Amino acid sequence: MIRAVAPHMRGRGSGCIINISSIVGKLSTPGNGVYSASKFALESLSDALRLELELELEPFGIHGVVVEPGAIRTRFDETSLAHTGEILSNPAIPLQAALPEKC
């Protein structure tokens, strides 16, 4: 998406690229591995973008921001923890074979 809009922003001489991430892009929590991985990836993209903006896009008036909100009152954690229990208690998943017996 950034590649698609950057040329238009350059043509206008201004723009702001906003990536919405999460605090779990900095610190993963149990049961949120997949979600955290997507946010870690967005954090990495935003880090690279920051350098690209400095070198290539800031002269065209294009800036970037990454927003990393913390906890928001939703049922996300409750749902995630419920599914984590189901996954970890399922003996058929590959993770079970990799876990030490004391786990």
Q: Per the principal axes of the C-alpha atoms, what is the gross shape?
A: elongated
Unreliable spans are: none
Structural class designation: mainly alpha
Order of helices and strands: HEHEHH
Sketch the major β-sheet: 2 strands, parallel
Radius of gyration: 19 Å
Number of strands: 2
Ends: how far apart?
A: 42 Å
Number of helices: 4
- Helical percentage: 40-55%
User: Order of strands in the sheet with the most strands?
Assistant: 1-2
Task: Summarize, please.
The chain is mainly α and 103 residues long.
Overview of the molecule:
This protein has a domain of 71 residues. It contains 4 helices and 2 strands, in the order αβαβαα. It is elongated. Helix content is 52%, strand content 12%. The protein is mainly alpha-helical and 103 residues long.
Question: What's the SSE blueprint?
Answer:
Blueprint: H1 2-12, E1 15-20, H2 33-57, E2 62-67, H3 76-88, H4 94-98
Keywords:
elongated, mainly alpha, 2 strands, 103 residues, 52% helix, two-stranded parallel sheet
